[in-house]
Amino acid sequence: MNTTHHDHLPTTRKTAGLSRPLKTALLMVAIVGGFYLLREHWTHVAGNWVYLLLLACPLMHLFHGHGGHGSHGGHDGDGDQAAPHDTRKE
Fold first, then answer.
1. Residues with Cβ within 8 Å of residue 38, at least 6 apart in sequence
2. Which residues contact 75 (CB under 8 A, 6 or more apart)?
3. CA distance 11 to 6
4. Are 25 and 17 in contact (CB under 8 A)?
5. Considering just the CA atoms, what is the radius of gyration of the chain in Å?
6. Which residue of 14, 33, 77, 84 is surrounded by the most CB atoms within 10 Å?
């Protein structure tokens, strides 16, 4: 018996999260539910649209994705980094 030999079986990884058809179905249910919710409460929404607009600003700042800051040159304090020059001679 050889104890150093291991059978290497291909491992299958399950994808994390929901499948695409389930995501699509949940999105459709949310859209239909939002439509009926807005339809029933339109007078309240229309009467307070200014406050809803003001509430949207901090919510957008709070929930905005924070991954889009990669092109600013980093957050280490060196904001004045120059691009490297091409030193090849022709």
1. 45
2. 69
3. 14
4. no
5. 27
6. 33
Which region, left, alpha or beta, applies to residue 15 given φ > 0 means left and ψ of -120 to 50 means alpha? beta
Cα–Cα dist 46/48, whole Å: 6
Contact 38, 45 (CB under 8 A): yes
Q: Which residues contact 52 (CB under 8 A, 6 or more apart)?
A: 45
Angle formed at CA 59 by CA 70 and CA 18, multiple of 5 degrees: 70
Instruction: Classify residue 17 by burial, with Cβ atoms within 10 Å: 0-12, 13-18, 19+.
Output: exposed
Residue 79: pLDDT band (50, 70, 90) is: low
Q: Is the Cβ–Cβ distance between 69 and 76 less than 8 Å?
A: no
